[in-house]
Amino acid sequence: MSLPPTPPGGTTPGLVCAHHHLYSALARGVPGPAVAPTDFLSILESIWWKLDVALDLEAIAWSARLGALEALESGCTAVIDHHESPHAIEGSLDVIADACAEVGVRVSCAYGVTDRHGPDGAKAGLAENERFLRAGGHGLVGVHAAFTCTDDTLDAAAGLARDLEVGVHIHVAEADTDDGATERLAGLTDDRWLLVHGVHLADDHGLSGTIVHNPRSNMNNAVGYARPTRFTNPVALGSDGIGASMLDEFRVAFARLRESDVTAGADTAWSWLEAGWQLMPAALDDRVTWSYDPIEPWAVAYTTDVRALEVVVDGEVVLADGRATRVDGAEIRARAAEQATRLASRMSP
Ligand SMILES: [Zn+2]
What we know:
TIM Barrel, 5-stranded parallel beta sheet, 13 strands, globular
């Protein structure tokens, strides 16, 4: 199938967001907590762990549609998602995969297993990963983080991933709350794992897998700077749920790198963006035409408004003149706003 004529502007393959939470797309429409959280754990407790228990499959679907739409509009054609909805576990990964397929965005799904809701909750999370992957779904086995899981759950998730020949997608050492993760995950990891954040990992932590750096999220949660250049692991870039504008995330990654080392080049942060293609190689076949030319590291690092004009996925134009072609973007935004209101009404104060 020949591709349609290309509009003027630089082109790249589809960009990859190596760590996303599509379920967080509705959070902007939910009022903030009455008392401002003061640290990482209280941010989880007062915002995310109230939102995730209120999610049902309908809210998940609209959140995923909105997140996928925003990814596409940013030239991101492949999202590696990490999902949690403790009261709507079974079938949740299908809902997310279907929503992304509707919009025309590739997705790797994972359910974040945790013992926060007891052993039955952990078992249900493992079962959802297994059900989805055995049915042919594209994804990884998800784990929230070592600090919310028992050793038995970590072993079970690692074992399931080995059986299914995929990696584990897990938050690691995002904050000092997760101290001890290195020791508890030692011997379980392999090169297919995604180790998300790694802010508080030692330089020689010894874990295998790709470190996913989320610089904007780390700043937002005041957990520190991961200094990814110190690791021997591959490093990729994620948004941690704050959209999927990967050129923007690259700029933040570059600025943060320069803050710690003024001699650093844009190529380093760009290589983290490119590492996404090792994780989702299908995105290499996609084509994004941008509003700016050339799309190369130094130029993009200092050009703050580069928009995706056209996106081709699997030979189909799924974004034309900056607008999604398969879905009505205005309708998705309107319905997602309604769902955010409904979600807020279901959340405990
Ligand atoms: Zn995350």
